[in-house]
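Why do we bother with a discrete structure alphabet at all? Because it lets us treat a fold like text: something you can write down, compare, and reason about line by line. To make this less abstract, here is a complete entry for GmrSD restriction endonucleases C-terminal domain-containing protein. Read it the way you would read a sentence in a foreign language you are learning: slowly, and without expecting to understand everything at once.
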Amino acid sequence: MGLKTLLIAAAAASVAIAASVEEQLAKRGNLPTPVSASTARTYLNSITVQAESNSPAYDRDLFNHWITISGACNTRETVLKRDGSNVQTDSACASTSGSWYSDYDGATWTAASDVDIDHIVPLKEAWVSGARNWDNARRQQFANDLTRPQLLAVTDNVNQAKGDMDPAEWLPSRTAYHCTYIRA
């Protein structure tokens, strides 16, 4: 293969990857539209800052996550199908093949077991920021929200390292994704 052919193939692959990433972002729901600086200042001035509270103590089970979405598919399997490419599932909706690109670190995985579904706003962060005052139905909706880009298929150990940290404490290692992550 000549250098020219190799360069053309590499360029075509880059365009295909970029189109695939844009397609995946579109499937996840719309990111909030940035507001003007004056509107942002108005919003910020209307916020009452309070200390986070973990009273009563956070309990992940109070968020009832990974509920059945359709047929045998729970929230996790639905996100795996949405965020993956060429995902095949068995009769129980478990992913048997496919590939997943992690926006957090740029890694691609071919085993669903290597992928976690991340809550961009961690459930504990939501709890200490006020979700402790929500009823069970609202917490369940938040934990399984497919209408916003709140749930993402990402590299499992990266998600586990993030834990319950918010954007002030943790950002993805892939700097090209920082703005998208913060907007989401």
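What the structure line is telling us, in plain words: Strands lie at 68-70, 73-74, 84-89, 95-101, 108-109, 115-119, 151-155. The first strand starts at residue 68 and ends at 70.
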